[in-house]
Write a structure and sequence with these properties.
377 residues; mainly alpha; three-stranded antiparallel beta sheet; two-stranded antiparallel sheet; 52% helix
Length: 377
């Protein structure tokens, strides 16, 4: 493994510093192994610790996470191997910039082409990001005021909050008021229909396709329609916080903080939730990818909130989550046959896909948040 020196860790305990250093080194090792042993492939989840390349995916949304991890590896190591590989994986997904069938273009192009542009200012990368953002905005349903999910025009997913940033960014860069209004409308509709009064979230909202009237909450991956699927709540924490960085609407910030409070109050002190908090006696106690996403959202909130006590709470919870995920129960460092980074992730529990395994987004957001905490951005 590379001998990485993390000089931004002076504010973290010695115990956490060691864990975080080891976790970063192990992550970089696993990323390099993956692109060398399975070149040009985009696995989504593991089976018995080995990346599953073929098989059911439900929807096509994970191709940005390998390229994103490669950019993160380049940021920490400055090794051109990772930069060149990152650009290669970016180019492989470029045709998806006009993919009108999915709601996930932020997941594809934000950690890849957007990172490329931010680091190097390449005008081609900028154009690709803007085209992807424009394509995603075309999913807007004017009657309901939301971007529809890949399932149907009358379906709204909480996940889309993690993709709305690319629409805000595109609108800002192009000076396009129509795109800006689409992004704002989507955020407002999501808050009104999917975020409950206690800060919990529904996975899906169903609308009348003719009138745009909101009909009811539903779920695809949680326990019940009226329960709270952990990864969906994590998307909300991170996504509403990101929306606030563009909109400066205090309602976006207060929504992110309400969701954060629900996560903190309902999750065990180690910081790792189950797949759904309401599921009685769950077979699997952990959903590590939800924890990794929530950690990133909480860290972002610690810099956005105007309340010092809240900032301390979000920061300390982030560090606790990362400390747990960097330990032997979750980090796969002690298992040489395991190809992912984090164990105990869950993709789609009802369908039995990627259950108690590594998942591509869990690995990505874990490393992303680690680097932000240690000051590498």
């Amino acid at each position: 493994m590379p001998n990485t020196t993390l000089t931004g860790l002076q504010h973290i305990s010695g115990h956490q510093k060691l864990r975080f250093e080891n976790a970063v080194d192990f992550s970089i090792h696993q990323i390099k192994q993956l692109v060398n042993q399975k070149p040009d492939l985009f696995p989504m989840y593991t089976i018995n610790g080995r990346w599953k390349i073929e098989g059911e995916t439900w929807t096509n949304w994970c191709e940005g996470f390998i390229g994103g991890q490669l950019w993160l590896a380049y940021l920490i190591t400055k090794d051109n191997f990772f930069r060149d590989k990152a650009k290669h994986y970016c180019r492989l997904i470029e045709p998806r910039k006009t993919d009108s069938k999915v709601h996930d273009l932020g997941f594809l192009f934000w950690p890849t082409w957007k990172c490329w542009y931010d680091l190097e200012g390449d005008p081609l990368a900028w154009q690709v990001v803007l085209e992807a953002g424009t394509t995603l905005a075309n999913r807007f349903q004017p009657r309901g005021g939301y971007l529809c999910s890949f399932l149907a025009e009358n379906s709204l997913f909480i996940d889309i909050m993690m993709n709305i940033g690319i629409v805000f960014y595109t609108a800002q860069q192009k000076g396009d008021k129509d795109l800006w209004n689409i992004a704002c409308s989507h955020v407002q509709t999501t808050r009104r229909t999917l975020v409950r009064g206690d800060g919990s979230t529904a996975h899906e909202g169903v609308f009348d396709p003719q009138s745009g009237e909101f009909l009811h909450q539903s779920t695809q991956q949680g326990w019940r329609s009226d329960s709270c699927w952990a990864r969906g709540l994590a998307w909300a924490i991170y996504g509403f916080g990101t929306a606030f960085t563009y909109s400066h609407d205090p309602h976006d910030l207060s929504t992110a903080e309400a969701c954060a409070q629900y996560f903190i109050e309902h999750t065990p002190t180690h910081g790792i939730p189950p797949n759904d908090w309401e599921e009685p006696s769950p077979k699997y106690s952990y959903e590590s990818s939800a924890a990794a996403i929530a950690a990133g959202g909480l860290w972002q909130l610690s810099h956005l909130t105007g309340d010092p006590a809240h900032a301390w709470l979000y920061r300390s919870t982030t560090l606790q989550i990362l400390d747990t995920l960097s330990g032997p129960e979750f980090l796969a460092a002690d298992n040489p046959e395991w190809e992912g980074i984090l164990k105990h992730g869950i993709y789609h529990q009802p369908k039995g896909l990627g259950v108690d395994e590594s998942v591509a987004w869990g690995d990505y957001f874990f490393l992303e948040t680690l680097l932000k905490v240690i000051g590498v951005e």
